[in-house]
């Protein structure tokens, strides 16, 4: 294992990122299993680890003016239990289904996005919320729509010297009721085969069916094939989940 640092202030973390190559770590619920897999196959990692869990600015959920801010290191458990408007119901429901309670207590919303798995449960609810990500570096800060941040399977627009510090959700978007539904081989502790988030204003996002979750505009889906499901199965499953989500909202 390489170096390990755990800064308590954001500027220190950004200085470190500007100076070298660091593997950013928060909850570690994706990092540690991946590292164990590499070690088991004789390919141990010698990465330098930057632990961001001691930086207060990266945690918490606040409303400021016309925008909600979610710190990138906010845990799934904090989201699950937060008192938030109905527009966050889909995100809170996703938080209840991300692994077990131990994973929910450790895993973070920012890690879920930066890991950029096609089956990242946080992405469809945040797309429906029209969320933006905030990236920071020693060069300054910038915001991107979530759909512009996640580029593909395990690929994002984050530069090596940048840190995802927060998500921003328009307060007006958070008022419409929302729902989240997912299909897996079992009800919990499972990677999604298909998932859907929808709100009462008609916005629908479909995830786990392609490399990147996307807002659905009613055009035919073109799902992917993998070991968890065929394209045909995913197409039927996503259509059914959309119908169920819309029925729940109508009720």
Describe this structure in words.
There is one protein chain. The chain has 251 residues and is α+β, with helices and mostly antiparallel strands. It has a domain at 177-250: Enolase-like, domain 1, CATH 3.30.390.50. 31% of the residues lie in helices and 24% in strands. It has nine helices and 14 strands. It has helices at residues 10-19, 31-40, 76-81, 89-96, 101-106, 109-115, 123-128, 146-149, 231-250; strands at residues 4-5, 23-25, 49-51, 61-64, 67-71, 132-137, 140-145, 150-152, 155-156, 163-170, 178-183, 194-199, 204-207, 214-215. The strands form four sheets. A five-stranded antiparallel β-sheet has the order 4-5-10-6-7. It has a four-stranded antiparallel β-sheet with strand order 11-12-13-14. Helix 2 (31-40) links the parallel strand 2 (23-25) and strand 3. The radius of gyration is 18 Å and the shape is globular. It starts with a strand and ends with a helix.
CATH topology of one domain, what is it called? Enolase-like, domain 1
The number of helical segments is: 9
Q: What string gives the helices and strands in order?
A: EHEHEEEHHHHHEEHEEEEEEEH
How much strand?
15-25%
Largest sheet: 5 strands, antiparallel
- Strand order, largest beta sheet: 4-5-10-6-7
Give the overall shape, derived from the CA principal axes: globular
Superfamily (CATH H level) name of one domain: CO dehydrogenase flavoprotein, C-terminal domain
How large is the radius of gyration? 18 Å
Task: Give the assembly state of these chains.
Answer: single chain
- For the residues shown, what is the average pLDDT? 92
Uncertain stretches: none
Helical/strand content category: alpha+beta
Number of strands: 14
CATH class of one domain: Alpha Beta
């Amino acid at each position: 294992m390489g170096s390990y640092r755990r800064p308590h202030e954001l500027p220190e973390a950004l200085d470190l990122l500007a100076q070298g190559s660091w593997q950013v770590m928060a909850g570690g619920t994706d990092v540690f299993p991946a590292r164990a897999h590499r070690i088991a196959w004789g390919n141990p990692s010698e990465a330098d680890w930057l632990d961001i869990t001691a930086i207060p600015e990266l945690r918490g959920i606040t409303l400021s003016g016309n925008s909600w801010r979610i710190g990138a290191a906010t845990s799934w458990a904090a989201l699950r239990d937060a008192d938030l408007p109905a527009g966050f119901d889909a995100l809170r429901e996703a938080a209840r289904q991300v692994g077990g309670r131990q994973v929910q207590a450790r895993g973070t919303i920012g890690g879920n996005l930066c890991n950029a798995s096609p089956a990242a449960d946080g992405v469809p609810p945040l797309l429906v919320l029209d969320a933006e990500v905030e990236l920071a570096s020693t060069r300054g800060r910038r915001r991107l729509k979530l759909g512009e941040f996640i580029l593909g399977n395990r690929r994002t627009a984050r530069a090596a010297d940048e840190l995802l510090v927060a998500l921003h959700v328009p307060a007006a978007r958070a008022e419409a009721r929302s729902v989240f539904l997912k299909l897996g081989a079992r009800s919990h502790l499972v990677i999604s085969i298909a998932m859907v988030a929808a709100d009462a204003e008609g916005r629908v996002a479909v995830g786990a069916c392609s490399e990147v979750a996307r807002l659905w505009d009613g055009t035919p889906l073109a799902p992917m094939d993998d070991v968890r499901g065929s394209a045909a199965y995913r197409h039927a499953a996503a259509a059914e989940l959309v119908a169920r989500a819309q029925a729940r909202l109508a009720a």
